[in-house]
Amino acid sequence: MQVMTKRRRQRRGEGHEMIETIRLTAAQAMFRWLSLQMTEEGERFIDGVWAIFGHGNVAGIGEALHGIGKELPTWRGQNEQTMAHAAIAYAKTKRRRRAMAVTSSIGPGSTNMVTAAALAHVNRLPVLFIPGDVFANRRPDPVLQQIEDFDDGTMSVTDCFRPVSRYFDRITRPEHLLTALPRAMQVMTDPANCGPVTLAFCQDVQAEAYDYPVSFFEPKMWRIRRLEPDPRELDDVIVALKASTNPVIVAGGGVLYSSADDDLLAFAKKHNIPIIETQAGKGAIDWQESLNFGSPGVTGTDCGNQIAAKADLILGVGTRFQDFTTGSWAIFANPNRKLVSINLTGYDAAKHGSIPLVCDAKIALSRISLRLGTHRFADPDFAARRAWFAATDRVTAAPEPSSGNILPSDAQVIGGVQRVAGPDTVVMCAAGTMPGALQILWRAAAGGYHMEYGFSCMGYEVAGAFGIKLAAQKKEVVCLVGDGSYMMANSELATAVMMRVPFTIVLTDNRGYGCINRLQQECGGAEFNNMYKDSNIAVQPDIDFVGHAASMGAHAVKVDDIAQLETEIVRARSRDVPTVIVIDTEAETGAGIGGAWWDVAVPEVGSSEKLKKARAHYEANALRQRIN
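^ thats the sequence. predicted structure below, dont judge the formating
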């Protein structure tokens, strides 16, 4: 990169001080600065940039990324949304200690990333979005793909990012970077405010030069702070805990982001408190630990939901208490129950009348344990836990040849993957049947579970598996995805092939949206527009998923049964490209066991008896809800 340095005089009171500057385009300055922002471990916080170029970022940003080279590597994606999903999965796997940037052209390239930004926002994950934007000087307006607001001349399509960004800025002058970039890093490294940042970069400004202070480019180390509790809030929590007899811990994603896995287990063992895990928190504690009672709520284990129903104190650790976790606020049935919420944000900590403890999870557990001393609670129902695992053994067992079960269920597919999984296996998913079935049935080793269920975004799976493998190269990554989600977004499979990043996709083909089809019927509706057989189409599709995956360079195979599935998963471990294993499944069963009611509004008026029964069931369960 050809640059010039010079000194300039800057008035300081009565004298002058010589300030050394370097002349760079704004785009060059941005990526040079990002390459020098370090973690406490001495690594770049932004580990690289995903880029699809077009007008709006190819000239300014493209030149700058080419110039910086390996100091901040660039990767080419196939779709703006899915390359952002890969970046998000990377950050989640790195427990928010590292992140990636994603850049796109103006117009549809930018709007393609809005869904990914929303996903990162819901999941509190850091990613830096750098969409191209309009000309700040407005000389060529309107440019190709520019959306014009008839009433607001300052409006741009990138304003779509405002509600799905934790910090948004539009770079309309080169010197804006001097304040915008540090603010962006502060947000992405702030454990309480962490989330996506959008720096919409006007395309003419990217190419404009400015004399930046050389001092701006000195390497900087960013610490992830740990918040201490307010002593008064801690007092309230201790009083509530000591007054309880049947507490339960609800472990959320904050346990992982705080690296409090071991602390949580030690706390639970010392005080004999059972643990139930949310989708984001699953995998913090190994499934074999006797105090791990699985999951709560809509996709909950029977033993976990029984514990939740009896609990007189629910100790949330790093959880948002989302509706799936709480069974739409119907599973915590003890009339005397109290909620305690340990969270980094007051917004989350005070939800639903909780006793808040705004604090880092690791520190909170240590402070509470010290105050509880040797206090231990009564044993939970370990017999219920043993009965639960016996039940899961039955539903995940491979179908008997004589059973008449022509196609395996999703639970049986999970069982097949489970039997060949090792301690380094990470199973992942995002939408459809598999997230609920996996939370209920999968026996996760510590660190062996990755679920995007905050946004439950169809199309995250393939790109997400790719991002996980980039972040954890020694792990075996197994993606379970239905035909519906695979059809939504699969293009980063080609990118993984080109980069030689191997992972395994188990593609379950039930010929439609089986999960929503079941929900539709549970809500009293007719089977309509979810399965191909119930859709307004002339020809039932026969999609060659093997041929499709193979055309992108993946190793692809279709298996006839669970035994073959297990064999192919093992074989995939020796390859340096992704493996896609296709298996036909039935769409009716789902997990087969566990679960709880979910508040999905049923029509109040309708003609069918099925709908009337569903509405009566809905009204009965709604009476059980308690939101404070």
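Residues 81 and 250 are 32 Å apart (CA to CA).
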